[in-house]
Structure formats: structure tokens, C-alpha cells
From TrEMBL:
GO terms for molecular function: ceramide 1-phosphate binding; ceramide 1-phosphate transfer activity. Residues 97-124 have a biased composition (Low complexity). It is found in: Golgi apparatus, trans-Golgi network membrane; Membrane. Its main location: Golgi. It comes from Rotaria sordida. It comes from the Eukaryota. This is Pleckstrin homology domain-containing family A member 8. SMART domains: PH. One of its GO terms (cellular component) is Golgi apparatus. Residues 1-94 form the PH domain. SUPFAM superfamilies: Glycolipid transfer protein, GLTP (SSF110004), PH domain-like (SSF50729). Coiled coil: none annotated. It is a peripheral membrane protein.
Length: 459
């Protein structure tokens, strides 16, 4: 594969176009231009020795890093172009890993044939296990790369599909095609990982049933650990996957979450559980700069208190949100200024705003301020007058940097600089946002069905 990419040179010259070639031996080289290839390459690296990283905020950028030696910071012209390069590089990492293992195995076999001493056989076996261990580490790096791209593609598809009034079909087709390619690459890498973890079995990932696979691995581990060799190090590398919860965060410590509410029908949502859940999520406001967001948070808490006051009048009767709103519908008091119907309406809109913010920031390509601005435009802005919009505009300009925001969400701030922390917390944001939006949609549907959705402007 070959083509033009932007390469970071230095702070004086910035990004410059360079012509890159990934040849049949897995060497990644670059030249000043396609016309000047005859002058020789300006630099090169062996792909299998590199770690390929997708930039969390720039959808066009990716980096190739050789630990302790050099790195290439690169940008593609388009997201689809970057996708093709990432798949090509990831495929070569996989090929190179196989080649290295094959060579090592051949060398080990020759050593065994030339030396029948038991101690040498033991050393050869340990060497072979170390090779598998190294191979698994490389494979996990490859999986992390594809997982990052896969999440970006999935959320891009969702974003386009949710565009109103009509999604851009051409853009959706292009993004879906890119998603398909990434899925194939991810599944292939995962398949290779499974084969390594099952002792080089030729069984495909798709042919292993979850139960038989688990039982097989379990018995295999028991047999191996009874031997004189310790397989713990090798096994540990196979379980540190990107989806695994590694760090304690604001989200992992929540007592109540929308994930417990999202499977329920609207008439099944317990009122107090809903309000307690909302209260916990509004603690996110403190992470953004509590002072400038005081008005937003106090309004949300005021609406929660209005609903709690309604519940206190008859706790047995008002155990669900449905029972509260249905009571006001039957008494035709739902449009009164301090009604519970109005309180839940604005509470729902506030939760929708937070959910959209988490979704926008969780995609990893926006600053805190940009994510808030976009979420505000999608949710609350149309219901606010000029004065209120100005208040929010001022609040958005005072929010923390991305790094400070992530630090505020970590239980242990030192963990923020670790490689998987950002990946985990962004995934958590997307998951929580999804569950929040499911609950928001169920409340909205009920309001629309009963014609109690108010469109009044505030401030």
C-alpha cells in the first residue's frame, strides 16, 4: 500500500505532505514525494516492531511508535483513508507476529534436536513460552487499536442515523462500509488471540461455543499449573482487554444508574429511584465548574424537590412516575406552573442535556467546551430565551480542560495518565449516555402521546 500522508516535522514547519510506502516485507518508509522516490527514503520502520495508536481527538491522525527509539505522527486526508492505512498496518503486525513465532519455533526445534539434555529442553520450553507471551502482548495492542477505531465508527454511524429530519444516506453507506472493514479486522485479530490462548489450536473463534470454550480453557489451565512451569504471566496478558473495568471512576462508583431504569416501561419506573439516580448524575456539574453552573443545577434540584413533595402527599399512591403524571392528567392540573408534570418535563430535558454531553465528549474528538456547546444546541437551547442562553454561554467558557475534567472523574488522579484510563472512561460515558437517552425517550413518548409536551420559552 502507498499514498500521501501528512507527517509532523517540527514546530516551525508543522505538518508536511510525505509519500509513504508499506512494502511486501512489512517495512513502512516515507519519501519527500512520489516523484522523488529515486532520491531514497527519508526514514523507515518495521511495522511489527511498532505500536500503532489512534489519536483520541483527531479523526484523521494516527501515530507509529517504536518505544525508546522513534515515532511518526501522521494524518490522513480523510477518515476512510486513515481507515485503510490502519487496517493495512494492523494486518502486517499480525503477519509479522506469525513470522516471528514460526522462526522462533524452528530455532527451538533445531536446538532440541542438537541437545538431548533435559535442562536444555526446559530452557527451550521457557523460551517458547516467552515468545508466546510476547506475541500475545502484540496481539492485545492490535486489538486495542481496532477497538478504538471500531468504537469511533459505531458512534459515527449512530450520529448519522440519528440526524433529523433525514439521515445522509451516502454518508451512512460510506461510514458503514468502513465499519465493516474494521469489524473484519477486529474479528480476525480476536480469532488469532483465541488460538494463542488455547495453545495454538486451529479451531476458529466462530467454531468455539462459549461454554465448551470456557470449560476447555479452565481444565487446560488446571493441568498446566500443576506442572513445574508457571504460566501465570502468560495468562495475565490474555485477560487485560480494553473492555475490562480497570480503574475506579465517577461512573463505576455510582450507586444508582440509568442502566437499571432503561429496560423498564415508563409505567414501571419507580419515582424515588429515578429521582435518586438523577441526583447522582447532576454531581457531574461540580466537575465542570460548579459556580458558573449553579443556576442549571439549582433548577434541576428544584424540580426534583417538586416531585418529591408530590410523592410525600401520598407515598403509596405515587410510587411510579406514571402514577404522578397520570394523576395530574386526570385532574387536569398538568399545565399549572408548579405542577409535577412541568417539573418532570424540565428534569427530563436537563438529563437529556447531560446525556448528549457525555455522548459528544465520549467520542473522544471534542473539548469539554465544544461537547457542551453541541449538547446544548441539541437539547436546551431552543427552550431558552436570550438571557438564559448568555448565562450558559458564559458557563461554557469557564469549563476545565479535557485533562482536568478527566482527573476530576478519577478516584485516583494518578491513574489518568495510564494508557487505558481514557479509553475506559470514554467508553463509560458512551454507555451511560445511551441508557440515559433510553429513559429520556420513554418519558418523551408518554408526554407526546398525552399531548402534554410544553414548548414555552424560559428566560
Amino acid at each position: 500500500m502507498e499514498g500521501t500522508l501528512l507527517k509532523w516535522t517540527n514546530y516551525y514547519n508543522g505538518w508536511q505532505p510525505r509519500y509513504f510506502v508499506l512494502n511486501e516485507t512489512g517495512i513502512f518508509s516515507y519519501y519527500k514525494s512520489s516523484e522523488l522516490i529515486h532520491e531514497g527514503c527519508k526514514g523507515s520502520c518495521l511495522v511489527v516492531a511498532c505500536e500503532v495508536k489512534v489519536h483520541p481527538h483527531d479523526p484523521l491522525r494516527f501515530d507509529l511508535i517504536i518505544p525508546g527509539e522513534q515515532f511518526f505522527c501522521l494524518k490522513a486526508k480523510t477518515q476512510s483513508d486513515r481507515q485503510r492505512w490502519l487496517v493495512a498496518l494492523g494486518t502486517w503486525k499480525s503477519r509479522g507476529t506469525k513470522s516471528t513465532t514460526k522462526t522462533t519455533n524452528t530455532s527451538n526445534n533445531n536446538n532440541n534436536n542438537n541437545n538431548n539434555n533435559n535442562n536444555n529442553n526446559t530452557s527451550s520450553l521457557i523460551s517458547h513460552l516467552n515468545t508466546i507471551n510476547d506475541e500475545l502482548k502484540l496481539k492485545v495492542q492490535e486489538l486495542r487499536l481496532y477497538e478504538t477505531v471500531l468504537m469511533q465508527r459505531i458512534h459515527a454511524v449512530k450520529s448519522i442515523a440519528n440526524d433529523t429530519p433525514t439521515p445522509d444516506v451516502k454518508k451512512l453507506d460510506e461510514t458503514t462500509a468502513m465499519l465493516n472493514v474494521t469489524c473484519d479486522a477486529f474479528i480476525h485479530a480476536l480469532d488469532e488471540c483465541v488460538k494463542l490462548a488455547t495453545g495454538g489450536s486451529t479451531q476458529s473463534l466462530t467454531s468455539l461455543s462459549p461454554i465448551s470454550s470456557l470449560n476447555s480453557n479452565s481444565s487446560s489451565i488446571q493441568r498446566k499449573t500443576s506442572n513445574e512451569f508457571n504460566f501465570k504471566k502468560t495468562l495475565d496478558t490474555t485477560i487485560v482487554l480494553p473492555k475490562q473495568l480497570v480503574y475506579r471512576t465517577f461512573f463505576s462508583e455510582l450507586r444508582y444508574t440509568f442502566s437499571t431504569l432503561s429496560p423498564l416501561l415508563f409505567n414501571e419506573i419507580h419515582s424515588e429511584q429515578f429521582l435518586s439516580t438523577c441526583e447522582q448524575y447532576f454531581e457531574l456539574i461540580d466537575k465542570l465548574n460548579g459556580t458558573t453552573f449553579n443556576t442549571f443545577r439549582s433548577d434541576a434540584i428544584d424540580n426534583i424537590n417538586k416531585l418529591r413533595n408530590k410523592i410525600s402527599t401520598n407515598p403509596k399512591k405515587f410510587q411510579t412516575l406514571y402514577s404522578i403524571i397520570n394523576d395530574e392528567i386526570s385532574t387536569e392540573t398538568m399545565k399549572e406552573k408548579n405542577s409535577s408534570t412541568n417539573a418532570l418535563l424540565w428534569l427530563r430535558r436537563s438529563i437529556h442535556f447531560l446525556a448528549c454531553f457525555l455522548h459528544e465528549f465520549g467520542q473522544g474528538d471534542k473539548s469539554v467546551e465544544d461537547a457542551l456547546n453541541k449538547a446544548y444546541g441539541q437539547t436546551l437551547k431552543s427552550f431558552h430565551g436570550w438571557t438564559t442562553r448568555e448565562v450558559f454561554s458564559v458557563a461554557f467558557r469557564s469549563v476545565p480542560s479535557n485533562e482536568d475534567f478527566l482527573i476530576s472523574l478519577a478516584i485516583d488522579p494518578h491513574e489518568v495518565r495510564e494508557a487505558l484510563f481514557e479509553r475506559q472512561i470514554l467508553n463509560e460515558m458512551l454507555q451511560h449516555s445511551s441508557n440515559m437517552n433510553v429513559v429520556v425517550r420513554k418519558i418523551s413518548d408518554f408526554y407526546i402521546e398525552h399531548n402534554i409536551e410544553l414548548d414555552g420559552i424560559v428566560g
